[in-house]
Amino acid sequence: MTTTPARSTRTPITWWECEPRRLRRDQEEIPARFPRLVFSDEGAGSWEGMLPRWPFDRPEPAHLTDWIGEHGLRLRLEYGHAYPMVAPRILPLDPLPEPWEWTQHRWHVNGDASLCLLRDDIWTGRESVVDLLLKAAGWRIEYALMKHQTIEVMTGSGIVTDHCLDHFLAQPPTPEDTSGHREPDTADQDGAAC
Known about the structure:
5 helices; 4 strands; alpha+beta
């Protein structure tokens, strides 16, 4: 006679039960740098809120608010249960990229609308989530430059450490570039976003 083994009814554990020091680290580092983000322990956990418009270690350009307004990126950072070995997803909530922008690498948006922030970097699980949030704040600024048709493609390293786009932000956008509307350009489409 064969018997079927009883199915396990184990309750899944969250990543922070396995990595309590990492949770403590994130809960210290994130609010210290981004106090407007709020943690939720639903599912695998997330942070949601508004990033500062210029959280970088250099002076804010004179006309930044002319490009992006008074506020930075509103986002949701979503952990997965494989965190910290797998980087969290960062989803922009405002501004929200248009679906056609998800399919073009130059916008640094993945096909699921999450931001592609690790193009030139590798996530090993030891990095700080603060570094990803800084890149997301920079993505917001480069997104405005793209929407105003000032640049054709976002930078590889990001505005966090790359000063090459700062000169654009020292001047207001030109009136003809302020519509923020750009028709989908599929001629140079280069496959999946990131």
